[in-house]
Amino acid sequence: MPDKNSIIVTSHVARDFLQNSAYFNTMPKLIWEYVANSLDAADEGETAVVTVEITSNFVKISDTGRGMSRQELNNFFQMHGENIQKKKGKRVRGRFGTGKCAAFGLANYLRISTTQNGFHNEVELHRKDIDQARNGEPFPVTDIKVNELTDGNSGTLVEIRDFNTKHTDIDKVIAYIEKHLSRYRLRAHVNINGHKCKFEEPIHIDSFEIDAPDDISKHLGQVRLIIKVSPVPLDDDSKGIDILSYGIWHGTTLGNIEKKERSNYIFGYIDIPILEDGEWSIPPFDNTRNNTLNPQNPVVAVLLGWLSEELEKVRIQLVDKEREKRKSEEAKKLAKEAQKIADILNDDFAQQEMELELARRVSRRAGSKSISEILDEQGELWPGDGDSPTPWERTGSQHGEGKRGSLAGDGDIPRPGPGVRPGNEPGAKKDVVEGQSKKRKAVFSIDYENATVTKARSRYEVDTKTIWINIDHPQIANVYEIGGRSTDNRQFREICYEVAAVEYAIALPYERIEKEPYYDAGLALDDVRETINRVTRRFMQAISTSP
User: Fold this and answer.
1) Which residues of 238-265 are buried (b: 16+ CB within 10 A; e: fewer)?
2) pLDDT of residue 233
3) What angle do helix axes 521-545 and 490-515 make, rounded to 10 degrees?
4) Which residue from 188, 200, 369, 392 lies 20 to 30 Å from 61 (Cα-Cα)?
């Protein structure tokens, strides 16, 4: 026992409590915390049933689990206490019981009503109670009902009120919960404001099952890595390998292939029981809900090294397949057709930008300044040497003798030279050579992909301004097959042009919103309709006049 002069470790309870609550700084995180607690509370072998009600005034999360006894409720409010379910031997996601803080990440009031084996307990906690514990001493939770007899079913209701935020995006909450449910691979029914949460795993066109070799299994155990390949790029929440332990999700990773070509097509999972069973001075993951592995842990270090090697093998296969595919005659013809579409769209885009810029400049020109004094000989300013603001900025490298690539080299597709994109680079009047202005380079590009029959017939990639046409979509695939898989077939060309026109018409308002924050939805819908009509006329003219 330490004597009265010993220095001992202490903790400021209120500060600990509120610092732990700071992690739960979004509504999806906050609600998932209590949903996950409800999943842990389900009896072994039983399907967890959780109901979430979200309004502007409160959030309620209720379950049909085993509930909490008075003693378990007391343990629930113990800071950094051991998870009771885990102590009893049940495999659960929670580790250090930090969930009692979650409500105070966004709100000021928490009420818990719980029933177990015919006894009902109800307590509440206010932020003012926490704030009053200024000296770091424990603070009380207010009892509402204590061990009242009831014939009600076991289960727990969490009620959160007095939010410091004004708006909740329920769709984002649903999306977040559904993605997390998929990773836990548990039997559960979760209902949010009448919506039954469900999640479908991304479609895959290839898969690999890899057993850990002997030098790896001696560290990780006899585990199997499942790698799957999506036909289309995956978003950040879907890509990567889920790291599980007894079915509980602890993180997602792509090892060291993150950001590499085609890595965003890869997903899968691996279950490693030793992450839960082992004891280390450096834990494999933290005690928050970050779902982040600790690379300093010896098992995690071995895991990440092995995963990186296996994922890199798969990634290289994907890159090689794509390169071989683009060398085929069919791919070359599709690329040529895609360029024709892109040329028309970029010419249209340039015209629309010029008209919008003219309108903006006319609206703010001073006195009797003429339009001819506002624009240059070709109708607009060009980025480059100069000090006048332009609506463009230069992009890309200079022309070269080689082919596509970061450096000029061997290849089949010409490497493009510099282009422009919407921006604010200073410039001057465009150069005029023999009466012709410099040609604006591509802003939008078109490409084809085999995204499977279940995916949309097209998609727009905002970062690269690429319109992708899914030639596996039944409407397009049918015409392509009937026409003998020929890009010269008029029906195939017409449908691809029409798909591109619709996607371009939808994309155009996004480009405009960046420069016009007051651009409203009604005007956007009118512009979509007008763009489709305008561009399809040009497309049909191009199809009719081309050989």
Assistant:
1) ebbbbbbbeebbbbbbbbebeeeebbbb
2) 93
3) 150
4) 200
SS3 at position 244? strand
Quote the CA–CA distance of 132 and 125 in Å, as a whole number.
Answer: 12
Nearest-angstrom CA–CA distance, 396 and 405: 11
Cα 114 vs. chain centroid, distance in angstroms?
35
Distance, CA of 250 to CA of 119 (rounded, Å): 34
Secondary-structure breakdown of the chain: helix, strand, coil percentages, each rounded to the nearest 5:
40, 25, 40
Question: At 303, which amino acid appears?
Answer: L
274, with CB counted inside 10 A (0-12, 13-18, 19+), is: middle
Contact 335, 413 (CB under 8 A): yes
Mean pLDDT (10-residue bins), the chain, 547 residues: 74 82 88 89 81 94 92 82 53 58 92 95 92 84 94 94 89 88 74 90 93 95 96 90 86 91 95 88 72 86 96 96 88 91 91 72 51 45 58 56 50 51 55 40 83 92 91 93 87 94 91 75 87 92 79
107-116 and 119-126 as β-strands: parallel, antiparallel, unpaired? antiparallel
Distance, CA of 287 to CA of 272 (rounded, Å): 18
Please report the DSSP string for 450-465 in residue order.
---TTS-SEEEETTTT
419: left (phi over 0), alpha (psi -120 to 50) or beta: beta
Rounded to two decimals, the pTM is: 0.69
Structure tokens at 92: 């659960």
| The two structure tokens encoding residue 462 | 């905002």
User: In the numeric block, which tokens belong to residue 112?
Assistant: 């818990």
- What is the three-class DSSP state of 437? strand
Residue appearing with tokens 């497309």: 539
Nearest to 228 by CA among 184, 264, 187: 264
Question: 3-class SS at 349?
Answer: helix
Q: Which residue reads 């950001």 in tokens? A: 259
- HSE-CB at 4 with a 13 A cutoff on CA atoms is 0
| Residues whose CB is less than 8 angstroms from the CB of residue 352 and which lie 6 or more positions away in sequence, other chains included | 508
Domains and CATH numbers, the chain: 13-196 (3.30.565.10), 206-325 (3.30.230), 329-363+370-400+417-545 (no CATH)
344 and 542 Cβ atoms separated by less than 8 Å: yes
**Phi/psi at 48 (nearest 5 deg)?**
-70, 135
Burial class (CB in 10 A: 0-12, 13-18, 19+), 419: middle
**Are 24 and 288 within 8 A, CB to CB?**
no
Q: For residues 399 and 276, what is the distance between their CA atoms, to the nearest angstrom?
A: 56
Instruction: Report the distance separating Cα 114 and Cα 116, nearest Å.
Output: 7
One-letter amino acid identity for 130? I
